[in-house]
Amino acid sequence: MSSTNFKSLEGNVGPIRGILFLAPQMTKKMWYWCAGSVGNGGLFEFLGMFLLYYYNQILGLSAYLATTAIAISITFDAISDPAIGYLSDRHRHPLGRRIPFMLAGVLPTGLCIILLFAIKIELSQLLLFLQMTILTTLLRIAHTIYNVPREALALEMYRNYDERTALWSHSKIANILGIALVMAPALLFFMSEDWNDPNGFIWSAIWLSAIFIAYSGYSAWRMRHIEIEEKLLPSEIPKPSLKELLPEVKSLITNKSWLALFFAMIFFGLNGGLNGGSSLYLNNYFWHWGPSDLFWSGFIQLPGAIASSLWILALIEKRFDKKQLAIYLALAAIVTAPILMGARLIDIHYDTSILPPTGEGTLSLLWWLFCINAFVQNFLWTGFWILIASMFSDIVEDEAIKTKRRSEGLVFSANNLLNKLVANVGILASGFMLTWAGFDIAQTLLEKEVAASYLALVWIVSGAVAGTLSIVMLLRYQITRFEHDQQLENLGFNKDNYFHESRTDL
Q1: d(Cα 358, Cα 293) in Å, to the nearest integer?
Q2: In CATH, which of 2.40.50.140, 3.40.50.1000, 1.20.1250.20, 3.40.50.720 is domain 23-491?
């Protein structure tokens, strides 16, 4: 990169890890942090794909109650985010402010993953609803304790306009590795071809738990050394105070760039919540893909995300602006995303033959078109989310100038809180849509296929509307490369380095 000497830090990670992440500039510090992204990638993909389907189609909980349980858990999760973020900003410990939280959250998260799928109550809808609500809430709070301090730590480690993009790019690659490590065994060895064997979900959850504990625990344990080197001295960290918290929150939620990103994410969150739990319904009843079909399609799709991560790094190195790139990628994704599904809907409802027939798995031309479309979408959306994460990171310095304090945990946790609350609306809407589409009463395969076609239509319309509104909001983001460099200089940081050597509170 033009303004960065990546080899100036603790040293490279070695040939195996460097090859694994396709990144010769991967440092030890970055490797330790990104190892936690492996666990997160597998966790988010697994829950997003399987949780709602498992409780609705396997255990028999109504779609609306299942999505209500998820929404309640996310609400508690969102409320806990600012508390954990603020406490980790102000916490005193020999290991550093963040590390004790990270270590404390790993094992409970892994245990809750298993319990969520292993405990099966075959009684009333109410008891099943309570089980799902309690276990999902405990899982999300445990993960918040681990992940909010971890994300805040990333902002302390890297401050430069370009390095933060590099970090999130490598983190995305680690996410992809985590998805592959979790989903490949689940799809190849554990899940039945008709998706209806509960044991497949249970064994997959156990495998996910093992992966999460191994990688997240490793990350938290190794990061303790780096945090000791870069942490604020305990005497310099102010004690937690509501009097200090409220002005910081007020400053953040009135920040124009943060507001632009927040409202952009509102619309993506609404759409994501609406569509997140429907993926397995669509794969099973709309496209008729089995576990092995999805495994091989994922094998083809994932290089798109990796290529996007490396491409974003190259463009940022050439000093492209993050906001412009994010808008271009979002626009391209919005235009291309509905093409294949729209053609399939036309074939179903108007008895046409735009697309080849389904039901032949990996031997069909339709499956290859599905893979190509997914490859393109992975490429576009991976780049988009990398840039959005990096843009959020740059707000930390903007706020530090205003409040005279570094509040990395608060910045990320406040964003998480509001976005999770907004996403709840989409999740609840997905429950209504699944019920409206007829999944709760559908008994035959034909009835479920009809219901899935309604879901596909909603997916297309919501994506187009939400994407357009998000782009409009992104246009209001104000932090440019030049402005961020000036902020670093004003704060006493050398913009060409990752961190300031003195690390005193502002």
Answers
A1: 12
A2: 1.20.1250.20
